[in-house]
UniProtKB/TrEMBL annotation:
NCBIfam families: rsfS_iojap_ybeB. Interacts with ribosomal protein uL14 (rplN). Coiled coil: none annotated. Pfam families: RsfS (PF02410). It comes from Rubellimicrobium rubrum. It comes from the Bacteria. GO terms for molecular function: ribosomal large subunit binding. This is Ribosomal silencing factor RsfS.
Length: 146
């Protein structure tokens, strides 16, 4: 079984023995709001563009928040995603699952409470996740902002 297949409780149980993660008993747990802040700061630090956060609480069981951002190229999309996963692991002991890094047109990073989508701009415009998930009447990013 790969490490990414372990549940969060299994990760915490093995934290002290594998040397990769801090002991869960000494690592403060992040709230979903704190995790969202960490994610957005990481994306901003790596020059992600058009960062949008969507509150999913009460609307979906998959997570508390969704974050959508763009990178200018496949190389930047992959780098943004990799840096985010590395920061979460190193700084907070959070192992995230990642899909799509090989092609890097659309990379999904599942941190548990926060689901992150990093797109190339053309792919983001094609799928328009904001329109699907934003509450009715909520402002969406405008074409002028792209």
């Amino acid at each position: 079984m790969e490490d990414d297949d372990l549940s969060p409780d299994a990760h915490a149980a093995g934290a002290a023995s594998d040397g990769l993660r801090p002991d869960a008993s000494t690592t403060p747990q992040l709230t979903s709001e704190d995790l969202l802040r960490v994610v957005v700061e990481s994306l901003d630090d790596d020059k992600a563009e058009d960062i949008v956060t969507i509150d999913l609480r009460g609307r979906s069981e998959m997570g508390d928040f969704m974050v959508i951002a763009s990178g200018r190229s496949t190389r930047q999309v992959a780098a943004i995603a990799e840096k985010l996963a590395d920061r979460l692991k190193q700084d907070h002991g959070i192992l995230s699952k990642m899909e799509g890094k090989e092609t890097a047109d659309w990379v999904l990073i599942d941190t548990g409470d926060v689901i992150v989508h990093v797109f190339r701009p053309e792919v983001r415009d094609f799928y328009q996740l904001e329109k699907m998930w934003m509450p009715s009447g909520a402002a969406t990013r405008s074409a002028a902002a792209v």
